[in-house]
């Protein structure tokens, strides 16, 4: 079946893994030929496994690495990788209203994003997640108002004003520091980077790749305008809003 | 009859997935809201037809939205389940090898027991005897907490049973793995983890099923062998009742004979 061999010539991207290289280097006609040698039922099975794998990973908000897809799901079906991914993507769109989106072209990581029309009030799920989302929105808004990045110390100061102290165990959020610097970062909502040339090391927060895809800066601006704690004056952002309406934020 | 997926169906599916499992009345509200938002044809009593449309499209991918019953209160629940019976696939990525072993061993105890429960002491002993890697008490307690939070197990008075979601997801796996060791309810013929058992002929029933079957009978008899039914019959409120059905639990605590065999 699919034999391991080094890719000849440039592939669509330079994977560092020979398996990846092989999977990605197959031309469309090669994929078709490989497909003909496989039982359609088995290929369908692989597509279904991939769909489930992507859904499970995404429910945990863990970005999915292409290398993991190849290693854990595709395995021997490397020769028809592009076809399997294509069919899985189509299923996700048609049945689930989700789109497979690459958020990191360098490391090839994907997330699933809903392509259903955004709702004004998407409050159908009420639990811990709503509270976490609220906290995250506050942080994203603050970062946005600070020009998309802010020092760690500034973020903690702002949260303390809202009675969320990273040094104190919070009734709803638990270990706040861990939630913000680890969970939100792992889920790609925030970035937590060391500021170069600082000693002792200082860190800053920025919007993460998932935040950029899942929300729009327009939504954040509207939120900020209403909440003085985030820097809004409760109405003074009107001018920015009007200017912003037209552009693609 | 329309069999096309609409955005209404897709939104329903997305919300159901994010909840994991959803109680009947919540699902009905969601059905109404999704149809309203996306201007899809809506009939209040046609939730099952609505779900069937989704299931037709999920079938090639070995997934289904399944309807199940809670063994505690008899209420209807909906969950998206994976039909592949070969592995505990949904759990595999969240738990380490020894955590999965602990879960499987706990499931063994739960299924083999008459009551459908495993005590925490029992489980902590299992943790100490794991083949993959022994687990200390604190670690095992944390794993149990995670399993409860993720709705694989549910806890009551320090004892653990399988969560409704777990039973719905793993029904195929349990039936094929445990075969003759599992009990099926004599009334509804589904898998029964918690059950009342006839002491004479051995048939079993879900507590809510027993409640419905024996309703208002002063002298309940086994439907199979006609012997006197030795257990306290749980009082079941109307399934759509807004109030939590606390009657069976209270009865179980205060009754002398109890619904569990010794």
Automatic annotation (TrEMBL), chain A:
Q: Which InterPro entries match?
A: MAGE, MAGE_WH1, MAGE_WH2, MHD_dom
Q: What is this protein called?
A: MAGE domain-containing protein
Disordered as annotated region, ranges? 1-29
Classification lineage: Eukaryota, Metazoa, Chordata, Craniata, Vertebrata
Q: Name one Pfam family in it.
A: MAGE
**Any transmembrane segments, and where?**
none
Sorted alphabetically, the Gene Ontology cellular component annotations on this record are: nucleus
Ranges for domain MAGE: 43-227
* Organism for this UniProt entry: Chrysemys picta bellii
Q: In the UniProt record, what gene is named as encoding this protein?
A: LOC101938275
UniProtKB/TrEMBL annotation, chain B:
Range of residues in the leader sequence: none
Q: Which residues form a coiled coil?
A: 123-150
- Which GO MF terms are attached to this record? protein dimerization activity; ubiquitin protein ligase activity; zinc ion binding
What the entry lists under InterPro entries is as follows: Nse1, Nse1_RING_C4HC3-type, WH-like_DNA-bd_sf, Znf_RING/FYVE/PHD
Keyword match Ribonucleoprotein? no
Gene Ontology cellular-component annotations: chromosome, centromeric region; chromosome, telomeric region; mitotic spindle pole; nucleoplasm; Smc5-Smc6 complex
Domain of life of the native organism? Eukaryota
Instruction: Please list the GO biological process terms of this entry.
Output: double-strand break repair via homologous recombination
Main location (coarse class): nucleus
Residues annotated as domain Non-structural maintenance of chromosomes element 1 RING C4HC3-type? 185-225
> Where does the record place it?
Chromosome, Telomere; Nucleus
The reaction(s) annotated as catalysed by this protein in its Swiss-Prot or TrEMBL entry are: S-ubiquitinyl-[E2 ubiquitin-conjugating enzyme]-L-cysteine + [acceptor protein]-L-lysine = [E2 ubiquitin-conjugating enzyme]-L-cysteine + N(6)-ubiquitinyl-[acceptor protein]-L-lysine
Bias category Basic residues: which stretches? Answer: 250-262
> What are the start and end residues of every segment in region (Disordered)?
236-262
Q: Which UniProt keywords apply?
A: Chromosome, Coiled coil, DNA damage, DNA recombination, DNA repair, Metal-binding, Nucleus, Telomere, Transferase, Ubl conjugation pathway, Zinc, Zinc-finger
- Protein purpose: RING-type zinc finger-containing E3 ubiquitin ligase that assembles with melanoma antigen protein (MAGE) to catalyze the direct transfer of ubiquitin from E2 ubiquitin-conjugating enzyme to a specific substrate. Involved in maintenance of genome integrity, DNA damage response and DNA repair.
Family affiliation = Belongs to the NSE1 family.
Subunit description:
Component of the Smc5-Smc6 complex.
Q: What is this protein's name?
A: Non-structural maintenance of chromosomes element 1 homolog
Q: Which organism is it from?
A: Chrysemys picta bellii (Western painted turtle)
